[in-house]
Amino acid sequence: MNVPDAMLAIEITQAGGPDVLAPCSVPVPLPGHGQILIRVAYAGVNRPDALQRSGAYNPPPNASPLPGLEASGHVAAVGSGVTRWKVGDAVCALLPGGGYAEYALTAADHALPIPEGMSLREAACLPETCFTVWSNMVMRGGLKAGERFLVHGGTSGIGTTAIQIAKALGARVFATAGSDKKCSICTELGAEQAINYQEGDFAAAMKSVGGADLILDMVGGPYLPRNVRSLADDGRLVQIAFLSGAKVELNFAEVMMRRLTITGSTLRPQSDLAKARIAAKVEQHVWPMIARGAFKPVMDSEYPLDQAPAAHWRIEAPGHIGKIVLKVAP
Ligand SMILES: NC(=O)c1ccc[n+]([C@@H]2O[C@H](COP(=O)([O-])OP(=O)(O)OC[C@H]3O[C@@H](n4cnc5c(N)ncnc54)[C@H](OP(=O)(O)O)[C@@H]3O)[C@@H](O)[C@H]2O)c1
């Protein structure tokens, strides 16, 4: 594959709203030891990209300053020590950054094969959400078959993924969302009950079924004490974001008396080794779910790369359901 010296990318010109995203020409990066260079077909758009754009989520050291945490495409070059991939292989991959570009670098063991029968468009939406959901819901949260699992933001990229994977694991799934239409989608995806938080009290709903064994939450703020109330004794709360604020007053006596666990994590700053371990687990457990039709990404919309600002307006508005992608060079 002929790799040019320069490529089209989308840069964050300054911290701010979606219109600070602008096309630029930058050098194509070269793969170092253990890395691959991907000719990007599609790049997934995630809420953390919007956080980075607004100045609230800086890339880790040595990561590309360009936005974009996941992509699909074909291997364009391999660095020394890479044995699994060769030029031309179709892959989808978790990226440390830099997905909004014609070429992107990542560690070879953060890439996975395109699942059988899946398009590059859909596959671009898998890594960031699958890695986040599996590592928090299963590796950290310990979800098991038969447990009651509650996920907030049920129609988000994360929520639609968590509902399907939890259901495939044999859990009883509950979700919250901000409209009746969104709640219907959650139940179609496998939730036993979806609570419209504009109208109903999710803590009361969870108490009426015995409490949640595990909650995956991205909202935080006023949800924290309500999540604690929603948990069954010995229940676990895994926090993956704080869309409504990270500071809150909480009575920890209930945490102690009912033996609750409150934890959380964020994927991007973790070590390459930790991400490679998550990749291996995702390939081992989630790829077979895709193969047997138990999980597929819910697609909201697609924009050309140079319309990245429109994609960001869309992800920050309440209307979208599932994943948004940028079409780069399919
Ligand atoms: N920890 C990690 O490693 C990690 C990795 C990836 C993503 N995340 C986080 O997970 C969350 C979901 O990511 P995503 O890419 O799937 O995003 P997304 O599709 O934009 O979803 C955000 C969802 O949050 C719901 N929501 C509830 N309260 C909200 C509020 N106060 N403001 C805005 N939205 C609110 C919205 O649904 P309703 O309209 O139904 O409320 C929406 O579905 C984000 O917060 C993201 O930062 C964390």
UniProtKB/TrEMBL annotation:
Alphabetized, the UniProt keywords read: NADP, Oxidoreductase
Fetch the InterPro entries from UniProt.
ADH-like_C, ADH-like_N, ER, GroES-like_sf, NAD(P)-bd_dom_sf, Quinone_OxRdtase_PIG3
Gene Ontology MF annotations = NADPH binding; oxidoreductase activity, acting on NAD(P)H
Q: Which residues form the signal peptide?
A: none
Pfam families attached here? ADH_N (PF08240), ADH_zinc_N (PF00107)
Its recorded name reads NAD(P)H-quinone oxidoreductase
- Tell me where in this chain the Enoyl reductase (ER) domain is found: 16-326
Question: Per the UniProt record, which residue ranges are transmembrane?
Answer: none
